[in-house]
Design brief:
This is Glutathione synthase/RimK-type ligase-like ATP-grasp enzyme. Keywords: ATP-binding, Nucleotide-binding. The protein has two domains: 121 residues, Rossmann fold (3-Layer(aba) Sandwich), CATH 3.40.50; 167 residues, D-amino Acid Aminotransferase, Chain A, domain 1 (2-Layer Sandwich), CATH 3.30.470. It is 29% helix and 22% strand. The protein is built from nine helices and 13 strands. The strands form three sheets. A five-stranded antiparallel beta sheet has the order 11-10-9-12-13. A four-stranded parallel beta sheet has the order 2-1-3-4, sandwiched between helices. A hairpin with a 2-residue loop joins strand 9 and strand 10. The protein is globular and about 60 Å long. The structure holds adenosine-5'-triphosphate and magnesium ion. The site of magnesium ion has 2 residues, from loops.
């Protein structure tokens, strides 16, 4: 039988923010899958003992980017990782949005300002500054032209931390239509959700934000589905994706545009979509069976290590 590691972050001393994790782990086990919940940075885990390692909620990775990238390569050297390490590397740097735009995918217009480059902030209209690597709206803020001084300090702070900045027009459509997250799992649409705008005017860039205000189920329009599928089709080298989330907002023309393509550790919002749980379990089982079937014969013939559970396994 295939063995699966479901991977999360170590939240201690706080409780985990991933409400879906224990539910998914139990559902996998109830379906007869041998699944362990593990912390990605637990040095005691024997990754080779798993047929498939599924990244779920490694939510501390964005400020530990190098360590996390090294971990993905380490895991992939000994077993199957979902999503693959190359996908994680590409997606962890939001310069991918510029690549999607260059490939003709409708995206939120973005200018990148690396440390040492001139700010060139917009003269008119409201705009957003945020980091090219980050999550949870960390270091994101919106500005009107009279907030120029604060915006320059914001840029300087990010540059001092080595972060490249993204400068985008503030997309007005988000105030009326919110931001829609289309989630794909095992190659098909799983479900969609909508959340309200996160960036209130005047909120400081280093303030904590509510990441998913007013989250609710959403039925995607044909136009949203089409843009999401174009974004997924534009991922370099057409990798196999176990999971993907495409975040869309309406541009000034009313057409959906990609705000973010999340292929590293998307929150699946299963608590909002309990009917999706069996599809996620089935998707993981199928991926694990495929991974187990492609294990080298010598490896497959080796005896199991005492049938013991992995010492790094936890029950988050
Ligand atoms: N150009 C923009 N116009 C309007 N709102 C924006 C813009 N960019 C970001 N926001 C708001 O800030 C939030 C966070 O931005 P974004 O999703 O790009 O970064 P993130 O840190 O990856 O966030 P998360 O991980 O929570 O999705 C968005 O959900 C949206 O509400
Ligand atoms: Mg986002």
């Amino acid at each position: 039988m295939a063995r699966i590691a479901l991977v999360t972050y170590d939240p201690r001393p706080e409780p985990s923010k991933d409400a879906d994790f224990p539910v998914l782990l139990s559902a996998l086990r109830e379906a007869g899958v041998e699944a362990d919940g593990v912390f990605w940075d637990d040095a005691d885990v024997d990754w080779a003992a798993y047929d498939l390692v599924v990244i779920r909620s490694t939510w501390d990775y964005s400020w530990r980017a190098d360590e996390f990238a090294a971990w993905t390569r380490k895991v992939e050297a000994v077993t199957r990782l979902a999503n693959p390490a190359d996908v994680v590397r590409w997606n962890a740097d939001k310069r991918y949005l510029g690549e999607l735009a260059a490939a003709g995918v409708p995206t939120v217009p973005t200018r990148y300002v690396a440390p040492g480059e001139p700010a060139g902030l917009p003269e008119g209209g409201e705009y957003v500054i945020k980091p090219a690597s980050g999550a949870g709206a960390r270091y994101a803020a919106r500005y009107t032209p009279d907030g120029h001084g604060t915006a320059v300090r914001h840029l300087a702070r990010m540059h001092a931390e080595g972060l490249t900045a993204m400068v985008q027009p503030y997309v007005r459509g988000i105030d009326a239509g919110g931001e829609r997250a289309l989630q794909f799992f095992g190659g098909r649409l799983l479900h969609a959700s909508r959340k309200r705008a996160v960036l209130a005017p005047g909120t400081a860039f280093d303030a904590d934000k509510v990441a998913h205000p007013g989250l609710e189920p959403w039925t995607p329009s044909p136009a949203e589905l089409a843009v999401a599928e174009r974004a997924l089709a534009a991922v370099p080298d057409a990798p196999e994706l176990l999971y993907a989330r495409v975040d869309l907002v309406d541009g000034d023309d009313g057409e959906p545009r990609v705000m973010e393509l999340e292929l590293v550790e998307p929150n699946l919002f299963l608590f909002l979509h309990p009917q999706s749980l069996p599809h996620v379990v089935a998707g993981i089982r199928t991926a694990a069976a495929a991974a187990a079937a492609t294990v080298a014969p010598a490896q497959a013939a080796a005896p199991a290590p005492d049938g013991a559970r992995n010492p790094g396994a936890v029950n988050p």
